[in-house]
Design brief:
heterodimer; A: 188 residues; alpha/beta; Pyruvate-ferredoxin Oxidoreductase, domain 3; 7-stranded mixed beta sheet; 7 strands; 29% helix; 21% strand; B: 399 residues; Rossmann fold; 2 domains; 13 helices; 17 strands; 39% helix
Chain lengths: 188, 399
């Protein structure tokens, strides 16, 4: 991905921490030399458990357009049950990434012309010592492994910084664990 | 130090760096995270200030008026109907010449209810005697808040720092956090010209009569009309002061240089788009695309709306073939307020550009680059007067 601007859409449920995950990636991307990072949550009314999405734009230059993403290069899904409620690949560019937190293998998913990466973040995060359901630090490992956009070491530092008061080492361990156990599927 | 945070946190950080002494606020979307952050700063001891939670915006402004009258650096923030609810106190703060600073996270006004962005709220307050600054990104929010205290206290006029709700208030982007010691060196302590003092009792803002009359010392004191004339004169002088403050800020922090308007590729342009807030930055992408097509067009953002920087605007726009004013506000039954102001400023010029007025983005209606591109491309190909009736962009059905 060497285009001028990379657009990532994060799908989660209200309260799941998709905004925090996007914020961590924004920090790490900025540290890695991307001068333009803009993260915009769903504008309006969020409710716990309801589907929400967050837009993250990354560019080498300052970003002036703050409008929501329409044609993402990548979508990251924090909860695979969202696939039944939301068209997560809406507008996704051909050859774009679909990264899902799921216990199912990559071959179980069929997104025409898209690349797929899966990891059982929910289980791996718990194995790393985090409470049940904390997936927003772990999913960052899958993002790094699949996209290669931002180095995992820089991301892990950003995770520890964001969670500095909330078990930073368990959150970064979760990200690393997911990074090591992300399955990249075949392009179909 | 760089931060990646929301526009509301940028504003709160500016207020902390400026060492505001009294904060009174009532929560309203999309301003709420700003005042939440300030209460957090105060509760955790990061900020030495009195945080007064009140039961309404009217009281928030009343508390700021009292605090400022007692000589404290006072701050509040609001949006939309909250701003309107404090309306009577806004006029009072200006008339009483109290240097209060307020952030307005711009939001559409109900009815019908909307929590999303447009600029009708602060634009409708343009005649109240407050100085109005508009920010285009988070860097301008934090920098403007610091400059606003300086300006307000220097000219004894309250200042609104306005920024787009959600688009800026809730969006995260990188910005430089000014160093506290540099801010302390830049921003002088607040030394009020007149403050409430129990040792030296006096009356403030008592009733005036239509004519002048002698004060208690027997001297002829100004009446209502002289006092209001003075406010107007000082508003006009505030432009010169803002220019100096901006220069001093630039020397200290290395940022600034556009206190009145911020032009982008306007010098050689035949056509200029004019807008306020984050939309003026969004237009830069559109201008870049049109320049590649060979269209000589630029964009100018209005940074200071009151006092109206008519000279800077005339200098930038006279002699252009056309000027397209895009607004997220409307004087219902007339035109966009900015359009009307710019047209009036250009009236004495010999070489007046043709002008179009576009109304868009009301109540958060999405504004897309492709839509702006198509509109400006078409406008540049036929740069003629179309009459003053505003053109609505983005309407989806006829009501």
């Amino acid at each position: 991905m060497d285009q001028e601007r990379i657009e990532i859409r994060w799908h989660g449920r209200g309260g799941q921490g998709a905004i925090t995950a996007a914020k961590i990636v924004a920090h790490a991307a900025f540290v890695s030399g991307y001068k333009g990072v803009v993260m915009a949550p769903t504008f309006g009314t969020e409710r716990r458990g309801a589907p929400v999405f967050t837009s993250l734009k990354i560019s080498k230059n300052k970003i002036y357009d703050l409008s929501p993403i329409e044609t993402p290069d990548m979508v990251i899904v924090l909860d695979h049950t969202l696939l039944e409620e939301v068209n997560v690949t809406a507008g996704l560019k051909k050859g774009g990434w679909v990264i899902i937190n799921t216990h199912k293998p990559a071959r179980d998913y069929h997104f025409e012309g898209m690349r797929i990466a899966v990891s059982d973040v929910t289980t791996l995060a718990r194995e790393a010592g985090l409470p049940q359901g904390v997936v927003n630090s772990g999913i960052i490992g899958a993002f790094s492994k699949a996209s290669g956009l931002v180095d995992i070491d820089i991301l892990v530092k950003a995770v520890e910084e964001e969670f500095r008061d909330k078990k930073p080492e368990l959150n970064s361990a979760s990200a690393r664990r997911v990074y090591d156990r992300t399955e990249i599927g075949e392009v179909r | 130090m760089h931060m990646i945070e929301s526009g509301n946190v940028a504003a709160a950080t500016g207020v902390k760096l400026a060492r505001a002494g009294v904060i009174a606020a009532y929560p309203i979307t999309p301003q709420t995270p700003l005042t939440e952050k300030l209460s957090e700063f105060v509760a955790s001891g990061q900020m030495e200030a009195e945080y007064i939670p009140v039961e309404s915006e009217h009281s928030a402004m009343a508390v700021c008026i009292a605090a400022s009258s007692a000589g404290a650096r006072a701050f509040t923030a609001t949006s939309a109907n909250g701003l309107l609810y404090m309306n009577e106190q806004l006029h009072w703060a200006a008339g009483a010449r109290l240097p209060i600073v307020m952030c307005v996270a711009n939001r559409g006004i109900g009815a019908p209810w909307t929590v999303w962005n447009d600029q009708q709220d602060s634009m409708s307050q343009r005649d109240g005697g407050w100085i109005q600054l508009y920010a285009n990104d988070h860097q301008q929010i934090i920098d403007s808040v610091i400059k606003a205290f300086y300006l307000a206290e220097f000219v004894s006029i309250p200042v609104m720092v306005c920024y787009d709700g959600y688009l800026l208030s809730h969006t995260y982007m990188p910005f430089e956090q000014p160093d506290q010691t540099l801010v302390d060196g830049f921003l002088p302590d607040f030394k009020p010209k007149n403050a409430l003092d129990p040792e030296n009792p006096s009356n403030f803002n008592t009733v005036t009569l239509p004519d002048v009359r002698p004060d208690i010392h027997g001297n002829i004191a100004p009446g209502y009309m002289e006092i209001r004339h003075c406010l107007h004169q000082d508003m006009r002088k505030a432009m010169m002061v803002l220019e100096e403050i901006d220069m001093k800020f630039q020397e200290t922090f290395g940022r600034g240089g556009h206190p009145f308007v911020e032009p982008y590729l306007c010098d050689d342009a035949d056509h200029v788009v004019v807008s306020v807030g984050s939309l003026s930055y969004h237009f830069r992408d559109v201008i870049d695309l049109l320049r590649k097509e060979g269209v000589k067009v630029g964009v100018m953002g209005i940074q200071l709306y009151r006092p109206f920087p008519d000279k800077a605007i005339v200098d930038a726009l006279q002699g252009k073939s056309s000027v397209f004013v895009f607004e997220k506000a409307l004087s219902y039954g007339n035109q966009g307020p900015l359009y009307a102001d710019i047209k009036a400023a250009l009236y004495p010029c010999d070489n007046k550009p043709a002008m179009h007025n576009y109304i868009l983005g009301l109540g958060g209606r999405e504004i897309k680059t492709a839509q702006l591109l198509e509109t400006v491309r078409t406008a540049c190909s036929k740069p003629k007067w179309l009459g003053d009736t505003p053109i609505w962009l983005g309407l989806k059905c006829q009501e």
